[in-house]
DNA sequence: GCGGGACTCTCCCGTGGCGGGAGGGTGCAG
DNA sequence: CTGCACCCTCCCGCCACGGGAGAGTCCCGC
C-alpha cells in the first residue's frame, strides 16, 4: 500500500497480450471474440489496429470463460451478455439442461456399449405378416434424426390429449422414413390406432395402407434398438428381400406401461416387396 | 419361416443406402468411415465405385456407432478395432476415464460459474515484496495449457519422491511463462524450496533469481483462480505497472494439506519492473 | 429396348472454436 | 537508430460429418 508507483493513470488500458495474461484467454481467442463481437476491446488504434482492453472488461472476460468451459457456443454467450438479467437466467437454465441431457446420453451410451460387448442375446425370430390397412390418429412431420426423440414426446403428448385411452384399438406405433437414417432427415409419423375422425393442431386421422411386413420384436431399452434393426436387416439381406417403404414400429410395452426398461417390447416391421402372389 | 422367398443368396450384399438403413448410420457417415479406413465395404465395384457391404459388417458398424456415441475419435476407433482384445480393454478404460474427467470438469465449471455470479468476494489486498533469490528443487518443461494440471501432478510426485518433507524450507510453488496464457504453450516450473543438490530424472536443483513481486493471496479452489488473477491484473493496470517475466505461485495451503478447498491459500506473485531505486 | 426415377458416385464448401504460421507493421528501451 | 518483442491481417488446418452440384448407374415397368 505504500506508494512508489510512477503515476496513477485512471484509465490504464491493457494490450492484447497483457489482457490475455490476466484473463487466461489466449491472444488468438481474444481476437476471435473480437471478430465475433463477443468481447470488443474498449479501444482500437485506427492506425495500427492494435487492440486495447480496459481493466473493467476483465470480469466480463471471466464470465465468458466460464460459459465456454461449459461449452456454451460463442454466439449464444454474445446473446446472453446482450440480454437483460431476467432473460439470462432462462438461457443459463436452458444450457444447463442441455448439459444434463448430454450427460444422460453419455451414460446411456456407456450402458449400451457394455450390453453390446457382453455375450450375445438369443437370435431373434422373424415372421412375415400381411398388415391390413388401419385407421389411426397420427402426427406426421419432417424431422431430423437428432430431434426424433424429443419430437416423439411432444407429438405423442398431443395425441394423448385428443384421443382417450378407451377409444384406442391397439398399442401406439410409428413409421420412419428410410431417409431419416440414410440422410439424417425425413418424415416421421407417430400414431395410435383409433376409429375416430380428428383434426386438432398437428393431429390428424389417417389411414395406413396395407403392407407386407417382416416383423420381429425388440426386447429391452430403446438404446439398443439398432442391434435388433441390424439383426433384422441381416435376416432380410440373407433372404434376398428388398425393402419397400418406411419402417414400422409398434410399442407393445413401453415406458408408459412400465418403468422396467428390460420389460419393454417394441415390434419392428419392415415392409418388403411382395414376392409371392396373394 | 415358411418359404416364399425368391432365392437364398448366401452372400447377399447391401448397397450403401440399405446398409445405412439397417445400421442407422447415414450414407455420408459411411462414406466418411470408408475414406478413413474405419469401415471398408466388403466390395467396391471397380467400374462404378459403388460400395457393397456384407451383413457380417453390421455388428462392426454397431460397435462403431456406440463408440462414436461416446465421442471417441474415428481414428481411435480404427486403432481400437485393429488391436487385439487385450489392448482394447485398456483403450476403452482410457476413454471412459477421459469422459469422467470431462464430466468432472463440467461439474467444476458449473460450480465456478455459480460462485462467479453470486455476490462479490471482498476486494483483495495487494502487497509488493522483494523476493530474494532462492535455491529450489524443480521440474521445468515446455507444456501446453490444457496439460498443465496433469503435468503438475506428475512433476510434483517426482519431486516428492526425491526430496523428503523434512528438508524443505517452505511451501511448494510454481512459475508459469506468460506465453502459456497468451499462446497456450510455454515453460512451466514447479518446485519445492530446499538446500539440496539433486539431479534425478526430470528433477534438478536450480536457483530462482531475486524478483520484485506484486503479491496477493487467492482463497479457495483453483477453479476460481483466474478471478484473482484478473483482480491482480486490474490492480497492476490501474497502477500503471508493467509485467516482467513469469508469474509465481506459492501453494501455502493446498490439496495436500486439507481436503477443504475453501481453506486453500495460493499466493500469486507477478514480477513487475522495478520502478523505484533500491 | 427405352425411359425415368431412385440411387450412387466424386468433388468442394461450410460448420465451430480456435491453433499454427507467414509476412509485415509498431512501440519502446538502450 | 537499432533491435526486439509485440501486434496486425490473412489463410490454412482440425474433426466429423452435412449440403449440394453435376454426373454416372441400377433396375423396374412398359
Brief characterization of the structure:
2 copies of one chain form a homodimer. With 278 residues, chain A is an alpha+beta fold.
CATH second-level architecture of the largest domain in chain A: Alpha-Beta Barrel
Helix count of chain A? 8
Helix percent of chain A reads 25-40%
CATH topology of the largest domain in chain A: Multidrug-efflux Transporter 1 Regulator Bmrr, Chain A
Oligomer: homodimer
Give the strand order of the largest sheet of chain A, numbering strands 1, 2, ... along the chain: 4-10-12-11-6-7-5-9-8
Q: Whole-number average pLDDT of chain A?
A: 88
Could you state the order of secondary-structure elements of chain A as H and E? EHHEEHHHEEHEHEEEEHEE
CATH class of the largest domain in chain A: Alpha Beta
Q: Which parts of chain A are unreliable, with pLDDT below 50 for 5 consecutive residues or more?
A: 1-10
Q: SS-based structural class of chain A?
A: alpha+beta
Biggest pleated-sheet summary of chain A: 9 strands, antiparallel
Note the overall shape of chain A. Answer: elongated
Radius of gyration of chain A (CA) equals 28 Å
Biggest protein-protein contact in the assembly: A-B, 73 and 72 residues
- The figure for the number of domains of chain A is 2
Bin the strand percentage of chain A.
15-25%
Distance between the termini of chain A: 97 Å
In CATH terms, the superfamily of the largest domain in chain A is Regulatory factor, effector binding domain
Query: What is the number of strand segments of chain A?
Result: 12
Amino acid at each position: 500500500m505504500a506508494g512508489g508507483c510512477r503515476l496513477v493513470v485512471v484509465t490504464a488500458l491493457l494490450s492484447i497480450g497483457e489482457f490475455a495474461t490476466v484473463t487466461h484467454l489466449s491472444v488468438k481467442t481474444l481476437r476471435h471474440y473480437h471478430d465475433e463481437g463477443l468481447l470488443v476491446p474498449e479501444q482500437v488504434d485506427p492506425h495500427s489496429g492494435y487492440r486495447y482492453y480496459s481493466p473493467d472488461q476483465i470480469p466480463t472476460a471471466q464470465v465468458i470463460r466460464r460459459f465456454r468451459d461449459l461449452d456454451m457456443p460463442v454466439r449464444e454467450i454474445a446473446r446472453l451478455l446482450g440480454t437483460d438479467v431476467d432473460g439470462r437466467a432462462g438461457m443459463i437454465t436452458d444450457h444447463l439442461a442441455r448439459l444434463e441431457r448430454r450427460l444422460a446420453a453419455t451414460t446411456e451410451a456407456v450402458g449400451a456399449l457394455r450390453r453390446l460387448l457382453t455375450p450375445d442375446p438369443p437370435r431373434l425370430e422373424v415372421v412375415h405378416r400381411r398388415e391390413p390397412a388401419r385407421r389411426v390418429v397420427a402426427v406426421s412431420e419432417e424431422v431430423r434424426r437428432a430431434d426424433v426423440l424429443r419430437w416423439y414426446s411432444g407429438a405423442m403428448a398431443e395425441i394423448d390429449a385428443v384421443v382417450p385411452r378407451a377409444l384406442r384399438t391397439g398399442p401406439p406405433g410409428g413409421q420412419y422414413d428410410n431417409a431419416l437414417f440414410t440422410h439424417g432427415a425425413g418424415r416421421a409419423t407417430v400414431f395410435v390406432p383409433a376409429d375416430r375422425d380428428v383434426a386438432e393442431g398437428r393431429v390428424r386421422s389417417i389411414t395406413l395402407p396395407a403392407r407386407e411386413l417382416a416383423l420381429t420384436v425388440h426386447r429391452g431399452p430403446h438404446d439398443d434398438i439398432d442391434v435388433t434393426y441390424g439383426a433384422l436387416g441381416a435376416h432380410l439381406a440373407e433372404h434376398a428381400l428388398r425393402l419397400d417403404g418406411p419402417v414400422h414400429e409398434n410399442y407393445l410395452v413401453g415406458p408408459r406401461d412400465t418403468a422396467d426398461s428390460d420389460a419393454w417390447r417394441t415390434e419392428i416391421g419392415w415392409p418388403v416387396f411382395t414376392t409371392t402372389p396373394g
